[in-house]
């Protein structure tokens, strides 16, 4: 069995052609290493959570959901840029 | 041919199939979730509702109650499955008489369709004819009736899920345990580490990715449980086992409220993704080195 394994040629790594740029990991204020897509994902998650909580607790007091959207957009810009 | 291009050619059929059967239906559900749509109502057309369905969801007490019991169900079911699955995997790692037989027997629930699992457990738990109420009555004098007791129905649905899906956890953890290199364990034993220390400091960190993958699979499955529960309890008694999948089913099919049902589905998908992401971030994601 061991000799069979040794005879197998080196498998082709289809994702590594030696030219693909590495994904840029960034070190911002978030406690984990993130790339731009991670930070976009975190922003969308926060936006949806904020919207649902706004609908439940803040909108009945008369404040429009657009205020939440503006806050979420500002926060998203900050997270993507500095996160 | 560049290896990268070759890779994309190999991936192309999967991407095309995923796009048509995964991405497009998902986008359609998101689209429908922003509409009022009941094809059997006086106006069968889709009416744009903006975020109206989502506004309704956060005040829907039936939805919130259903979310609560679903979270409890998922927590107890998945936790028990992982613990029992690990114990069984460790048991199957050692040799004992009849090991192959028991391993086959314990895997059998996996190949049974969920609706059949529901009907089997319905037969086993029906008072007067079921084996479980009979045994409980004759051994400890407990009168099990899942049609009347909310707690009993809840516990029986969890037990059914554990019975059905623990073998999957066992199989994945066996695969993880088999692939572990022996060297760290030998070194730990030479250094005098106890069984608990070996488990906590060597086994668990090494199988953590497999455990997390299993937890994700089970978490997503448990969150969308419908057919087994619908068959066993129908979501009752009252709303004791009206899990989120059952709630969506009742909203979409008997009431044909497609828009609102889609909105609930989108919220549940959001919650599933967030929970999985938080688990991944908490357990596996690379952390920044601490300063100072």
From TrEMBL, chain A:
<feature type="transmembrane region" description="Helical">
    <location>
        <begin position="63"/>
        <end position="81"/>
    </location>
</feature>
<keyword id="KW-0812">Transmembrane</keyword>
<keyword id="KW-1133">Transmembrane helix</keyword>
<dbReference type="Pfam" id="PF09928">
    <property type="entry name" value="DUF2160"/>
</dbReference>
<protein>
    <recommendedName>
        <fullName>DUF2160 domain-containing protein</fullName>
    </recommendedName>
</protein>
<dbReference type="InterPro" id="IPR018678">
    <property type="entry name" value="DUF2160_TM"/>
</dbReference>
<feature type="transmembrane region" description="Helical">
    <location>
        <begin position="36"/>
        <end position="57"/>
    </location>
</feature>
<keyword id="KW-0472">Membrane</keyword>
TrEMBL record, chain B:
<dbReference type="InterPro" id="IPR000515">
    <property type="entry name" value="MetI-like"/>
</dbReference>
<feature type="domain" description="ABC transmembrane type-1">
    <location>
        <begin position="63"/>
        <end position="279"/>
    </location>
</feature>
<dbReference type="GO" id="GO:0005886">
    <property type="term" value="C:plasma membrane"/>
</dbReference>
<feature type="transmembrane region" description="Helical">
    <location>
        <begin position="258"/>
        <end position="280"/>
    </location>
</feature>
<comment type="similarity">
    <text>Belongs to the binding-protein-dependent transport system permease family.</text>
</comment>
<dbReference type="GO" id="GO:0055085">
    <property type="term" value="P:transmembrane transport"/>
</dbReference>
<feature type="transmembrane region" description="Helical">
    <location>
        <begin position="153"/>
        <end position="178"/>
    </location>
</feature>
<protein>
    <submittedName>
        <fullName>Sugar ABC transporter permease</fullName>
    </submittedName>
</protein>
<feature type="transmembrane region" description="Helical">
    <location>
        <begin position="7"/>
        <end position="31"/>
    </location>
</feature>
<keyword id="KW-0472">Membrane</keyword>
<dbReference type="InterPro" id="IPR035906">
    <property type="entry name" value="MetI-like_sf"/>
</dbReference>
<keyword id="KW-1133">Transmembrane helix</keyword>
<keyword id="KW-0812">Transmembrane</keyword>
<keyword id="KW-0813">Transport</keyword>
<feature type="transmembrane region" description="Helical">
    <location>
        <begin position="100"/>
        <end position="121"/>
    </location>
</feature>
<feature type="transmembrane region" description="Helical">
    <location>
        <begin position="63"/>
        <end position="88"/>
    </location>
</feature>
<feature type="transmembrane region" description="Helical">
    <location>
        <begin position="198"/>
        <end position="217"/>
    </location>
</feature>
<dbReference type="Pfam" id="PF00528">
    <property type="entry name" value="BPD_transp_1"/>
</dbReference>
<dbReference type="InterPro" id="IPR052730">
    <property type="entry name" value="Sugar_ABC_transporter"/>
</dbReference>
């Amino acid at each position: 069995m061991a000799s069979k394994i040794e005879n197998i040629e080196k498998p082709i790594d289809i994702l590594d052609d030696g030219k693909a740029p590495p994904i840029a990991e960034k070190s911002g204020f978030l406690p984990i290493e993130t790339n731009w897509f991670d930070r976009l994902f975190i922003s969308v998650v926060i936006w949806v959570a904020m919207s649902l909580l706004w609908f439940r607790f803040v909108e009945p007091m008369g404040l429009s959901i657009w205020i939440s959207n503006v806050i979420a957009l500002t926060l998203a810009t900050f997270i993507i840029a500095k996160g | 041919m560049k290896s990268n291009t070759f890779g994309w050619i190999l991936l192309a059929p999967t991407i095309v199939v995923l796009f048509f059967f995964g991405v497009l239906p998902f986008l359609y559900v998101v689209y429908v979730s922003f509409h009022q749509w009941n094809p059997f109502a006086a106006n069968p057309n889709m009416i744009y509702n903006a975020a109206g369905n989502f506004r309704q969801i956060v005040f829907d007490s039936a939805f919130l109650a259903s979310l609560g019991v679903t979270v409890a169900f998922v927590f107890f079911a998945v936790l028990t499955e992982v613990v029992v699955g690990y114990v069984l995997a460790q048991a199957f790692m050692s040799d004992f008489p009849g090991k192959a037989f028991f391993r086959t027997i314990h895997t059998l629930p996996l190949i049974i369709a969920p609706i059949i699992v529901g009907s089997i457990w319905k037969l086993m738990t029906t008072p007067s004819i079921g084996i479980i109420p009979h045994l409980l009555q004759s051994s400890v004098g407990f009168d099990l009736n899942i049609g009347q007791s909310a707690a009993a129905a809840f516990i029986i649905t969890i037990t059914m899920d554990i019975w059905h899906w623990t073998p999957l956890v066992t199989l994945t953890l066996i695969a993880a345990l088999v692939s572990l290199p022996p060297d760290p364990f030998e070194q730990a034993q030479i250094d005098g580490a106890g069984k608990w220390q070996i488990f906590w400091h060597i086994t668990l960190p090494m199988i953590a990715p497999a455990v997390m993958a299993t937890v994700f699979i089970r978490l997503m499955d448990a969150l969308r449980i419908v057919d087994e529960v619908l068959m066993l309890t129908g979501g009752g008694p009252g709303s004791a086992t009206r899990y989120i999948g059952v709630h969506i089913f009742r909203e979409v099919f008997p009431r044909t409220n497609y828009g609102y049902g889609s909105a609930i589905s989108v919220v549940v998908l959001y919650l599933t993704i967030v929970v999985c992401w938080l688990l991944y971030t908490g357990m596996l994601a690379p952390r920044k080195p601490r300063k100072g």
